[in-house]
Amino acid sequence: MALTKRQKEVVDFIAKFVDDNGYSPSYEEIAHGLNLASLATVHKHISALEAKNYLKRGFNRSRSLDLGPRYVQEHRRQRELEVPLLGRIAAGRPVEAIEQRATLSFADFAGNRDTYALEVRGDSMIEDHICDGDMILVERTADVRDGDIVVALVSGVETTLKRIYREAGDRIRLQPANSSLQPIFVPASEVQIQGRLLAVLRKYK
Fold this sequence. Notes:
Blueprint: H1 5-21, H2 27-34, H3 39-51, E1 55-57, E2 65-67, H4 69-80, E3 82-84, E4 103-105, H5 107-110, E5 115-119, E6 135-139, E7 149-154, E8 158-167, E9 171-175, E10 184-187, E11 191-201
Antiparallel strand pairs: 1-2, 3-4, 5-6, 6-11, 7-8, 7-11, 8-9, 9-10
Helix pairs in contact: 1-3, 2-3
């Protein structure tokens, strides 16, 4: 069973508190840290997390919360999908190199069933720095805004990566990012949005 947004906030707060202090937070500290209305609300979330194996409660202890096996398993998997983020590097004028302690996590992409990858063919989006041979990560959704880069199925036949714009007369403009190419105008009824661009990956050998 998936966690709600608030349940994830609760278990993440507890995990960080334990990591920072070496012991689990009290219900009062959880309520204060997350601006929860009452201790009853905290108890409700704790019970739900315990039922989902994200938390364990020990009895006869004042601070009785332990991270459950499912949280430990998912956290281990997430750490395997992290790489160190060591700072910034200039592509223009040089800047001072400063090491920073952080990680870049791919867990949000890899753990989401609505995320998929495609290999780019062609140069129609090259001015958006999306090149032939790049891998793109796409969120499977039809809820997009004008200007988003989308994967669009046109007339049930051709799939293309373009920026989408809604035009007057119930038409869709699929705009390439290549000044040598013309936009594609099609009736809205002939366009099926299959996803929205999340990220571009480029591998150098």
